[in-house]
Amino acid sequence: MSKFTLYFKKIALAGLVLVISLAAIPVVGASAAGLPDQSTPPANQPSNSGLEQTWTRVQATYQREGTRLDKADEFIGKVQSLIDKANQKGCDTSAVQTALNAFTSVIPAAQTAHAPGAVIISSHNGFDSSGKVTDRTTAIETVKALAQVLKDTRTAMNGTGKALHEAAKAFRDAHHPNKGTTSTTP
Fold it and tell me: What residue segments make up the domains of the chain, in order of their start?
């Protein structure tokens, strides 16, 4: 056994002993209860900050998704143009074309699935205009509803975006295997 392995085992054992000994020490101390602070919610009522952050996050995801769907026709046109150029060079683009056709066919369904989110965001039930919780129960339902819209949109896309990306990557790898290597000739 090498010295390094022996040294490493000793350090690991010492660390394990330290962790176990620290875990045995009680962390909670006793203190006298003061007057309740009216500015913070009672201990049995959860904080709304996590819910507000989630609301902000799902709104941002919805907006990004909407931007992508709005630009889908432009994206499809660019990919089709690249496929046409590759076809003119005699390359087999059938896999990429099939993936693009599948992607193109699901865009209307994805846009339809995405549309209800705009109403959910504009009504922002349970939240005020600045995103602060006004009614926790209603706010939770609003976040769930918007999350369901995002899920429905992903379901409508049926993985076609990922399939298109993978087909394009496979085509690129097959036709540009040395991409990234540099030439040493001046």
Answer: 49-173
